[in-house]
Amino acid sequence: MLKLLNQLLGLFCCFLMTACSSVPKLESNAIAPIVKLPNNHEELGVMSAYSDPWEGFNRRMYYFNAKADEYVILPVVAGYQKITPDVVERSVHNFFSNLDEISTFINSLLQLKLFVAGETLARFTLNSTLGLAGLFDVATQIGLAEQNEDFGQTLGYWGVDAGPYLVLPLLGPSSLRDATALAFDNLVFQQAINELGLDTDEELLISLIDGVDARASLPFRYYASGSAFEYEHLKLLYKKYREIQVAR
User: Could you tell me the pTM of the whole model?
Assistant: First the structure.
């Protein structure tokens, strides 16, 4: 999910430059607009394009995530980056990205995207061998682009509706469908970790490093946009982006 947020960031910055589409309420002594608004202007507004039946919970979770990020996660990430040389940090990131190729390969097959599956398999094979277990991204250097397919996209491909918007603890924006699909992708990741032959403590350490690495590669900062509508913007951006991912 953090990787998805990273992909959303560039779009998010551009989106914040657009005006909010919600219509402000006029005071009783205000001059009526010259151009009459359509009766269904709320339905036409981009900010009301997606329902948010759990908005109260989602907003509280958004605030919780912001505080957890500020006081716990980001300090850990800062410490990790301070003590870890850049070359090692890049290799750690490449290692986990290589493991993610397994989930992308499986979901590509489930979506009948054979070309994507073939390219992903080639990337995984090259990076796991010539790239020394994925520590070096050899595949990208020869033109094999990294793909991103998850089980939420697979469910969407087969017609499963995204469902209500949902903000997950620590993970951020999601939906009922995507949150449920996380279980499948996490199972695939866990099976890949199990193949390394690690004990329980080592697996826990690997999972922790994976989380820190994911957050370290994500420049997003809560409430850094300066917009009073950051929650709404991110919700809209997430929902539209996932629709594009499923449709492509």
Answer: 0.80
